Structure formats: C-alpha cells, structure tokens
Amino acid sequence: MAARNKARKRAFQILFEADQRGAPVQTVLADWLRHARTDDRQPPVSEYTMELVEGYAGYAERIDELISTYSVGWTLDRMPVVDRNIVRLATYELVWVDGTPDAVVIDEAVQLAKEFSTDDSPSFVNGLLGRFKDLKPSLLRVDRQE
C-alpha cells in the first residue's frame, strides 16, 4: 500500500473515531500520536496523515456546509458515518490541497467507500466528489472573498 494511501486511510479512521466519540479531530489525532509513540502495536501516524487531519479541522465547518448543500437527498446527520467522513476528508484534499491530482483523490475516496461502507456508497462518494471537482474553481473563489 502506497504511503499516501495509508495516510488517507489513517486520516479517515481518525475523522471517523472523532465523529463517533463526539470529540474534536485534533484530540483524537493527539491520542493516536501518543499511542503510536508508546505502543509498538499501534500504526504510525505519518506527516501526511497529520496534514490531512489538521487541514480538515481548519475547514470543517465549510466542508460540512458544502456537503449539506450538494448531497442530494441526504442530510449530513442522516448520511452514513463512514460516507460522511470519507467525503469530508476527500473534500478537504480535493478543494484545498494542491499537488495531488483530483482523479487520485476521488479514486482513493471511492476505494475507502468500497472497503468500509455499503454497496451504494462508492457511487455516492464518486458523484458528490465529482461535483466538488467541477465546482472547485468557484468554491475557492468564494473562500478567498470571505
């Protein structure tokens, strides 16, 4: 498994755990870092995982607003927790992180949905992220004006 793929998976797991616990993602990230340093059985937390989690945290409110606006037929609280957190993470990386091709971000999110969610989830994730990819220039323009 490629390093960035592992980093995305770990970041997703941290977001998922934070959502389940009702805890800030930074708190869960700190827990993961502490456990990785003190327990050899715990997987390491890479720099890119930290970048993704901290980056998401900086845009969490805006990301949830986008998901709520563009996810047809799903409110954020009714969306499956796995799907919600895959889309949150991928939206951050797709819209605000330069350097990773959009197709790679979307494909990796779809793969996470295939691995961790329902049979319908990959197409939902793909469709919503495809919409964000198309809207990316206008989303960034709006964010710069605010």
What do these coordinates show?
There is one protein chain. The protein is an all-alpha fold and 146 residues long. The chain has helices spanning 3-21, 25-38, 47-70, 81-96, 102-116, 121-145.
Give the tags.
77% helix, 146 residues, mainly alpha, 0% strand
Distance between the termini: 39 Å
Secondary-structure element series: HHHHHH
Proportion of residues in helical segments: over 70%
User: Unreliable stretches, pLDDT < 50, 5 or more residues?
Assistant: none
Globally, the shape reads globular
> Average pLDDT across residues?
94
- Rg to the nearest angstrom? 15 Å
- Quaternary state of this entry equals single chain
Task: Please indicate the percent range of residues in DSSP E strands (runs of 2 or more).
Answer: under 5%
Q: In total, how many beta strands?
A: 0
How would you characterize the largest beta sheet? none
How many helical stretches? 6
Overall SS class: mainly alpha
Task: Itemize the secondary structure elements and their pairings.
Layout: H1 3-21, H2 25-38, H3 47-70, H4 81-96, H5 102-116, H6 121-145
Brief write-up:
This protein is mainly α and 146 residues long.
